[in-house]
Design a protein that fits this description.
single chain
């Protein structure tokens, strides 16, 4: 169905929805969901109401603001009046959590393949392709979905790719909303060690659709930008403390840019597309996510039992890096005020982005051999 607004119009509604979310940052709903997640929800609602197109160049334009949001947020956090946000030691625990999440995704893909073949929900060849595609996208992000599709020829399977992609985006949106709720869970806070970081203004969570070239480029440069911004902030605090005190004012524009970034993503996360994709694709993706979640929770608890000290914040951002990719992981850490996790979030997301396609192709080859041996 053609959107009710012309393709040249999306930027204005995105700016308005982002502004509305930003203005609600101190309200009850803003504190519960966060302004960036509200922006994502507003734009997704407009898209599902057929008021915005599913894809548009303006969404890529919105994705370009993420590095600026991160830099401003780091500078604001380095103000002498801001809460300290140490970065030392954040990478190793997050890499451990990220590896646990990746293992959970791989196990979930195998479990979904076995169930769908056993129940005849999907033909064996289609189930093998679906397992490889979901394994890749839920380890490194949606850009890997297309890398595996191109490498395995999954596009030749009638109707499989559109249905899997629609279910992927819809489920990702729901999962990343769940991550926001998890950050407030008293039970999870009690089960995992505290990170020592306090959310600055309001919390958030995220999601993307296929990372286009601008989104991938933005994610790739965030590590260097975050390190540079943090170093510049520390230098100002040491040399010019009076001027550095004003840096806290940069928190507001940082939050607004994060709202705009997630607003562009929300416009592309159309849940109605997931509903139209059919039960097979949605069931497959849901199984992968459930197993990922269970393995992440159990695995991190085991790691912590042996002294890893992976905090709840670290685990949630690592899971975000698995499911959404580097852009959403960085956006979540920035909007939640977990600035000490920004470099680690970008690094883990980039590791997944660079390896997930190979892992997905390897799984596809393995499952095809299983299909041939078992004559499924």
């Amino acid at each position: 169905m053609k959107p009710l607004l012309a393709p040249s119009d999306p930027l204005l509604p995105l700016l308005l929805s982002s502004s509305a979310a930003f203005s609600l940052r101190d309200s009850a709903v803003g504190r519960a969901l966060s302004a960036p997640m509200l922006s994502f929800t507003f734009s997704s609602a407009l898209s599902n109401a057929n008021l915005l197109p599913l894809a548009h160049p303006s969404y890529d334009l919105c994705s370009r603001v993420l590095p600026f949001s991160v830099c401003l947020g780091l500078l604001a956090a380095s103000s002498p009046l801001s809460s300290p946000s140490p970065t030392t030691g954040a990478l190793r625990p997050m890499l451990a959590a990220f590896a646990v999440g990746a293992a959970g995704t791989a196990l979930g893909s195998l479990a979904a393949f076995a169930l769908c073949v056993r129940t005849s929900l999907l033909p064996a060849a289609s189930a093998a392709a679906a397992a490889s595609l979901y394994c890749a996208t839920y380890i490194g992000g949606s850009v890997n979905f297309f890398g595996v599709a191109a490498a395995t020829g999954a596009a030749r399977l009638d109707g499989l790719l559109p249905s899997l992609l629609a279910a992927d985006l819809g489920l990702m949106a729901l999962y990343l909303l769940a991550l926001t709720a998890a950050s407030h869970s008293p039970r999870l806070r009690a089960a995992f060690p505290a990170d020592g970081a306090r959310p600055r203004a309001a919390p958030s969570a995220p999601p993307p659709l296929p990372l286009s070239a601008p989104r991938a480029a933005a994610a790739g440069g965030i590590v260097a930008l975050s390190v540079g911004a943090a170093a510049a902030g520390r230098w100002l605090c040491e040399r010019f403390p009076a001027a550095a005190a004003a840096l806290r004012l940069l928190g507001a524009p940082s939050l607004f840019l994060c709202c705009l970034f997630l607003g562009g993503m929300g416009a592309s996360a159309k849940l109605s597309e997931m509903a139209a994709a059919g039960p097979a694709a949605a069931t497959f993706g849901a199984i992968v996510l459930m197993v990922h979640c269970v393995v992440m929770l159990v695995g991190v608890r085991v790691f912590n039992h042996f002294g890893a000290e992976i905090s709840l914040q670290t685990m949630l951002v690592a899971s975000n890096a698995n499911i959404g990719g580097p852009g959403t992981a960085v956006a979540m850490a920035s909007a939640m005020g977990w600035t000490q996790l920004l470099p680690a979030a970008a690094t883990c997301g980039t590791v997944g982005y660079s390896t997930a396609t190979l892992l997905g192709v390897a799984m596809h080859d393995f499952l095809l051999r299983v299909v041939r041996v078992m004559r499924l």
